[in-house]
Fold Acetoin utilization protein AcuC.
Amino acid sequence: MSARSVDPNEPSVLLFSGESLRRYGFGDGHPFGPDRQDAFLKAADDQGLLARVSHREPVEGDDFQARLFHTDEYVDFVARRSADGLGYLDGGDTPAQAGIHEDALRVVGTAVAAADALMRGEARRAFVPIAGLHHAARDAASGFCVYNDCGVVIEHLRRQYGLARVAYVDIDAHHGDGVYYGFEDDPAVIFADIHEDGRFLFPGTGAAEETGEGAAAGSKLNIPLAPGAGDREFFEAWAQVEDFLESHQPEFILLQCGADPLAGDPITHLRFSDEPHRHATLSLARIADRHAQGRLLATGGGGYNRQNIGIAWSAVLSALIESNDA
Protein backbone atom coordinates (compact mmCIF):
# COMPACT_ATOMS: atom_id res chain seq x y z
CA MET A 1 0.00 0.00 0.00
CA SER A 2 1.54 3.30 -1.02
CA ALA A 3 1.11 6.78 0.43
CA ARG A 4 -0.28 9.67 -1.55
CA SER A 5 0.18 13.41 -1.20
CA VAL A 6 -2.09 15.46 1.04
CA ASP A 7 -5.25 16.84 -0.56
CA PRO A 8 -5.15 20.60 0.19
CA ASN A 9 -8.96 20.60 0.46
CA GLU A 10 -8.91 18.14 3.35
CA PRO A 11 -8.63 19.26 7.00
CA SER A 12 -5.01 18.94 8.01
CA VAL A 13 -5.37 17.87 11.66
CA LEU A 14 -7.35 14.79 12.68
CA LEU A 15 -8.59 14.33 16.25
CA PHE A 16 -9.69 10.83 17.27
CA SER A 17 -11.94 10.81 20.33
CA GLY A 18 -15.28 9.48 21.49
CA GLU A 19 -17.20 7.72 24.21
CA SER A 20 -15.88 4.26 23.37
CA LEU A 21 -12.25 5.46 23.56
CA ARG A 22 -12.99 7.21 26.85
CA ARG A 23 -13.74 3.81 28.38
CA TYR A 24 -10.07 2.83 28.49
CA GLY A 25 -9.34 3.41 32.14
CA PHE A 26 -9.78 1.82 35.51
CA GLY A 27 -12.82 3.42 37.08
CA ASP A 28 -13.78 6.72 38.65
CA GLY A 29 -11.18 7.94 41.11
CA HIS A 30 -8.35 5.91 39.56
CA PRO A 31 -5.35 7.96 38.36
CA PHE A 32 -6.02 6.58 34.88
CA GLY A 33 -9.78 7.08 34.98
CA PRO A 34 -12.35 7.57 32.22
CA ASP A 35 -12.56 11.33 32.86
CA ARG A 36 -9.15 12.06 31.32
CA GLN A 37 -10.48 12.48 27.77
CA ASP A 38 -13.25 14.79 29.04
CA ALA A 39 -10.72 17.03 30.80
CA PHE A 40 -8.84 17.50 27.54
CA LEU A 41 -11.88 18.02 25.34
CA LYS A 42 -13.34 20.66 27.65
CA ALA A 43 -10.09 22.61 27.74
CA ALA A 44 -9.62 22.34 23.97
CA ASP A 45 -13.20 23.43 23.35
CA ASP A 46 -12.82 26.41 25.70
CA GLN A 47 -9.89 27.52 23.54
CA GLY A 48 -11.84 27.10 20.30
CA LEU A 49 -9.57 24.30 19.10
CA LEU A 50 -12.22 21.67 18.46
CA ALA A 51 -13.78 23.81 15.74
CA ARG A 52 -10.48 23.83 13.85
CA VAL A 53 -9.89 20.08 13.47
CA SER A 54 -11.48 17.16 11.70
CA HIS A 55 -13.12 14.79 14.16
CA ARG A 56 -12.83 11.03 13.75
CA GLU A 57 -14.53 8.33 15.79
CA PRO A 58 -12.59 5.60 17.60
CA VAL A 59 -11.91 2.45 15.58
CA GLU A 60 -12.28 -1.09 16.87
CA GLY A 61 -9.04 -3.05 17.00
CA ASP A 62 -8.48 -6.78 16.84
CA ASP A 63 -6.18 -9.48 18.13
CA PHE A 64 -4.20 -9.52 14.88
CA GLN A 65 -3.16 -5.91 15.41
CA ALA A 66 -2.19 -6.51 19.03
CA ARG A 67 -0.10 -9.50 17.97
CA LEU A 68 1.98 -7.31 15.65
CA PHE A 69 3.83 -6.24 18.80
CA HIS A 70 2.71 -8.59 21.58
CA THR A 71 3.21 -12.30 21.96
CA ASP A 72 0.32 -14.68 21.26
CA GLU A 73 0.52 -15.97 24.82
CA TYR A 74 0.17 -12.51 26.30
CA VAL A 75 -2.82 -11.52 24.15
CA ASP A 76 -4.54 -14.77 25.07
CA PHE A 77 -3.79 -14.14 28.75
CA VAL A 78 -5.33 -10.64 28.64
CA ALA A 79 -8.43 -11.95 26.87
CA ARG A 80 -8.96 -14.61 29.55
CA ARG A 81 -8.42 -12.27 32.47
CA SER A 82 -10.62 -9.61 30.86
CA ALA A 83 -13.47 -12.09 30.68
CA ASP A 84 -13.09 -12.88 34.39
CA GLY A 85 -12.55 -9.26 35.44
CA LEU A 86 -10.61 -10.26 38.55
CA GLY A 87 -7.17 -9.43 39.87
CA TYR A 88 -4.37 -7.71 38.02
CA LEU A 89 -2.58 -8.12 34.70
CA ASP A 90 0.77 -7.30 36.30
CA GLY A 91 2.21 -7.07 39.80
CA GLY A 92 -0.50 -4.75 41.07
CA ASP A 93 -0.73 -1.61 38.90
CA THR A 94 -2.98 -2.67 36.03
CA PRO A 95 -6.39 -4.14 36.99
CA ALA A 96 -7.78 -7.00 34.91
CA GLN A 97 -11.22 -5.44 34.87
CA ALA A 98 -14.02 -6.87 32.76
CA GLY A 99 -13.80 -5.72 29.16
CA ILE A 100 -10.27 -4.31 29.36
CA HIS A 101 -9.17 -6.53 26.45
CA GLU A 102 -11.71 -4.94 24.12
CA ASP A 103 -11.10 -1.43 25.48
CA ALA A 104 -7.35 -1.77 24.99
CA LEU A 105 -7.83 -3.16 21.47
CA ARG A 106 -9.89 -0.05 20.66
CA VAL A 107 -6.93 2.13 21.62
CA VAL A 108 -4.75 0.04 19.32
CA GLY A 109 -7.26 0.12 16.47
CA THR A 110 -7.69 3.88 16.74
CA ALA A 111 -3.94 4.56 16.78
CA VAL A 112 -3.46 2.32 13.73
CA ALA A 113 -6.33 4.07 11.94
CA ALA A 114 -4.72 7.44 12.65
CA ALA A 115 -1.40 6.24 11.24
CA ASP A 116 -3.17 4.86 8.16
CA ALA A 117 -4.92 8.19 7.59
CA LEU A 118 -1.57 9.97 7.57
CA MET A 119 -0.02 7.40 5.26
CA ARG A 120 -2.96 7.71 2.86
CA GLY A 121 -2.46 11.47 2.77
CA GLU A 122 -5.78 12.36 4.39
CA ALA A 123 -3.89 14.68 6.74
CA ARG A 124 -0.37 15.52 7.85
CA ARG A 125 -1.07 15.57 11.59
CA ALA A 126 -3.26 13.53 13.93
CA PHE A 127 -3.86 13.33 17.67
CA VAL A 128 -5.23 10.41 19.69
CA PRO A 129 -5.45 11.62 23.31
CA ILE A 130 -6.33 8.25 24.88
CA ALA A 131 -3.34 6.34 23.54
CA GLY A 132 0.40 6.26 24.05
CA LEU A 133 0.37 3.25 26.40
CA HIS A 134 4.14 3.02 26.35
CA HIS A 135 4.85 0.76 29.34
CA ALA A 136 3.28 -2.46 28.05
CA ALA A 137 5.98 -4.94 27.08
CA ARG A 138 5.71 -7.48 24.31
CA ASP A 139 4.74 -10.11 26.88
CA ALA A 140 3.39 -8.17 29.87
CA ALA A 141 1.18 -5.33 31.10
CA SER A 142 2.75 -2.54 33.12
CA GLY A 143 1.91 0.85 34.59
CA PHE A 144 -1.79 1.07 33.54
CA CYS A 145 -0.82 -0.03 29.99
CA VAL A 146 -2.37 -3.21 28.60
CA TYR A 147 -1.48 -3.10 24.89
CA ASN A 148 1.31 -0.90 23.60
CA ASP A 149 -0.40 0.99 20.78
CA CYS A 150 2.86 2.82 19.99
CA GLY A 151 4.69 -0.45 19.44
CA VAL A 152 1.82 -1.78 17.33
CA VAL A 153 1.81 1.35 15.16
CA ILE A 154 5.56 1.08 14.58
CA GLU A 155 5.27 -2.58 13.54
CA HIS A 156 2.27 -1.77 11.33
CA LEU A 157 4.05 1.09 9.55
CA ARG A 158 7.03 -1.08 8.75
CA ARG A 159 5.10 -4.15 7.62
CA GLN A 160 2.23 -2.43 5.78
CA TYR A 161 4.14 0.45 4.20
CA GLY A 162 7.74 -0.71 4.25
CA LEU A 163 9.04 2.31 6.17
CA ALA A 164 12.71 1.99 7.01
CA ARG A 165 13.03 4.78 9.62
CA VAL A 166 10.25 5.39 12.15
CA ALA A 167 10.94 7.89 14.94
CA TYR A 168 9.36 7.52 18.38
CA VAL A 169 9.68 10.62 20.58
CA ASP A 170 8.50 10.51 24.20
CA ILE A 171 8.17 13.50 26.56
CA ASP A 172 6.07 11.74 29.21
CA ALA A 173 7.63 12.01 32.69
CA HIS A 174 7.99 8.23 32.74
CA HIS A 175 10.45 6.41 30.50
CA GLY A 176 8.83 4.65 27.54
CA ASP A 177 10.33 1.32 28.53
CA GLY A 178 7.90 -0.88 26.62
CA VAL A 179 8.85 0.80 23.36
CA TYR A 180 12.54 1.07 24.15
CA TYR A 181 13.06 -2.57 25.08
CA GLY A 182 10.64 -3.73 22.39
CA PHE A 183 12.96 -2.24 19.77
CA GLU A 184 16.25 -2.02 21.66
CA ASP A 185 18.14 -3.98 19.00
CA ASP A 186 16.25 -2.59 15.98
CA PRO A 187 18.12 0.18 14.12
CA ALA A 188 15.04 1.10 12.07
CA VAL A 189 13.30 2.51 15.17
CA ILE A 190 14.72 5.91 16.08
CA PHE A 191 13.98 6.42 19.76
CA ALA A 192 14.28 9.68 21.73
CA ASP A 193 12.96 10.01 25.29
CA ILE A 194 13.14 12.88 27.81
CA HIS A 195 11.92 11.70 31.21
CA GLU A 196 12.42 11.91 34.95
CA ASP A 197 15.47 9.96 36.08
CA GLY A 198 14.54 6.33 36.67
CA ARG A 199 16.37 6.32 40.00
CA PHE A 200 13.50 8.40 41.35
CA LEU A 201 10.46 7.32 39.31
CA PHE A 202 8.78 4.25 37.81
CA PRO A 203 9.77 2.26 35.77
CA GLY A 204 13.38 2.79 36.88
CA THR A 205 14.85 2.65 33.37
CA GLY A 206 16.05 5.02 30.66
CA ALA A 207 19.62 5.77 31.70
CA ALA A 208 21.65 7.91 29.32
CA GLU A 209 23.88 4.90 28.64
CA GLU A 210 20.95 3.03 27.08
CA THR A 211 21.53 3.87 23.42
CA GLY A 212 20.50 0.62 21.73
CA GLU A 213 22.03 -2.82 21.39
CA GLY A 214 23.94 -4.55 18.61
CA ALA A 215 23.19 -3.15 15.17
CA ALA A 216 20.90 -0.57 16.83
CA ALA A 217 23.65 1.01 18.96
CA GLY A 218 23.36 4.76 18.59
CA SER A 219 19.78 4.70 17.30
CA LYS A 220 18.33 5.42 20.74
CA LEU A 221 18.57 8.56 22.88
CA ASN A 222 17.58 8.61 26.55
CA ILE A 223 17.81 11.88 28.49
CA PRO A 224 16.92 11.52 32.19
CA LEU A 225 16.14 14.71 34.12
CA ALA A 226 16.52 15.24 37.85
CA PRO A 227 13.40 15.59 40.00
CA GLY A 228 12.32 19.23 40.01
CA ALA A 229 13.64 19.92 36.51
CA GLY A 230 11.63 22.51 34.59
CA ASP A 231 11.45 24.24 31.25
CA ARG A 232 15.12 25.26 31.12
CA GLU A 233 16.32 21.69 31.51
CA PHE A 234 13.78 20.49 28.98
CA PHE A 235 14.87 22.96 26.30
CA GLU A 236 18.51 22.04 26.82
CA ALA A 237 17.62 18.38 26.34
CA TRP A 238 15.33 19.11 23.39
CA ALA A 239 18.20 20.62 21.41
CA GLN A 240 19.86 17.19 21.57
CA VAL A 241 16.65 15.52 20.40
CA GLU A 242 16.38 17.84 17.38
CA ASP A 243 19.97 17.15 16.31
CA PHE A 244 19.47 13.42 16.84
CA LEU A 245 16.31 13.28 14.73
CA GLU A 246 17.76 15.42 11.95
CA SER A 247 20.72 13.06 11.69
CA HIS A 248 18.38 10.07 11.21
CA GLN A 249 15.85 11.68 8.82
CA PRO A 250 12.73 9.74 9.91
CA GLU A 251 9.96 8.84 7.46
CA PHE A 252 7.24 9.04 10.14
CA ILE A 253 7.22 10.61 13.61
CA LEU A 254 5.22 9.28 16.56
CA LEU A 255 5.03 11.58 19.60
CA GLN A 256 4.00 10.39 23.05
CA CYS A 257 3.07 13.61 24.86
CA GLY A 258 2.16 12.60 28.39
CA ALA A 259 0.95 15.49 30.55
CA ASP A 260 2.64 14.29 33.73
CA PRO A 261 5.84 16.40 33.45
CA LEU A 262 3.78 19.53 34.25
CA ALA A 263 4.17 20.97 37.74
CA GLY A 264 1.51 19.63 40.10
CA ASP A 265 1.18 16.09 38.80
CA PRO A 266 0.42 13.85 41.81
CA ILE A 267 2.71 11.02 40.69
CA THR A 268 5.81 12.66 39.17
CA HIS A 269 8.31 15.33 40.25
CA LEU A 270 9.05 17.48 37.17
CA ARG A 271 7.94 21.10 36.96
CA PHE A 272 7.27 21.92 33.31
CA SER A 273 4.89 24.58 32.07
CA ASP A 274 2.95 23.88 28.87
CA GLU A 275 5.71 25.43 26.75
CA PRO A 276 7.72 22.20 26.34
CA HIS A 277 4.68 20.44 24.87
CA ARG A 278 3.98 23.28 22.48
CA HIS A 279 7.63 23.65 21.48
CA ALA A 280 8.22 19.93 20.99
CA THR A 281 5.15 19.60 18.77
CA LEU A 282 6.09 22.56 16.57
CA SER A 283 9.66 21.31 16.31
CA LEU A 284 8.61 17.79 15.35
CA ALA A 285 6.17 19.19 12.78
CA ARG A 286 9.03 21.05 11.09
CA ILE A 287 11.20 17.93 11.10
CA ALA A 288 8.29 15.88 9.76
CA ASP A 289 7.77 18.40 6.96
CA ARG A 290 11.43 18.11 5.97
CA HIS A 291 11.81 14.35 6.12
CA ALA A 292 8.47 12.57 6.61
CA GLN A 293 6.01 14.24 4.23
CA GLY A 294 4.59 16.01 7.29
CA ARG A 295 3.47 12.81 8.99
CA LEU A 296 3.25 13.44 12.74
CA LEU A 297 1.01 11.35 15.01
CA ALA A 298 0.65 12.47 18.64
CA THR A 299 -0.65 10.18 21.39
CA GLY A 300 -1.67 11.42 24.82
CA GLY A 301 0.10 9.06 27.19
CA GLY A 302 0.08 9.69 30.93
CA GLY A 303 -0.93 12.61 33.11
CA TYR A 304 -2.88 12.43 36.37
CA ASN A 305 -3.72 16.04 37.20
CA ARG A 306 -6.88 16.69 35.17
CA GLN A 307 -6.22 20.42 34.78
CA ASN A 308 -2.72 19.69 33.51
CA ILE A 309 -4.10 17.21 30.99
CA GLY A 310 -6.25 19.96 29.53
CA ILE A 311 -3.35 22.41 29.48
CA ALA A 312 -0.70 20.11 28.00
CA TRP A 313 -2.78 18.36 25.37
CA SER A 314 -4.44 21.59 24.28
CA ALA A 315 -0.94 22.99 23.77
CA VAL A 316 -0.14 19.97 21.58
CA LEU A 317 -3.32 20.28 19.56
CA SER A 318 -2.88 24.04 19.14
CA ALA A 319 0.67 23.48 17.90
CA LEU A 320 -0.47 20.81 15.44
CA ILE A 321 -2.99 23.30 14.04
CA GLU A 322 -0.51 26.17 13.97
CA SER A 323 2.13 24.08 12.22
CA ASN A 324 -0.29 23.53 9.34
CA ASP A 325 -1.38 27.16 9.18
CA ALA A 326 2.18 28.47 8.97
Q: What stands out?
A: The CA atoms of residues 192 and 221 lie 5 Å apart.
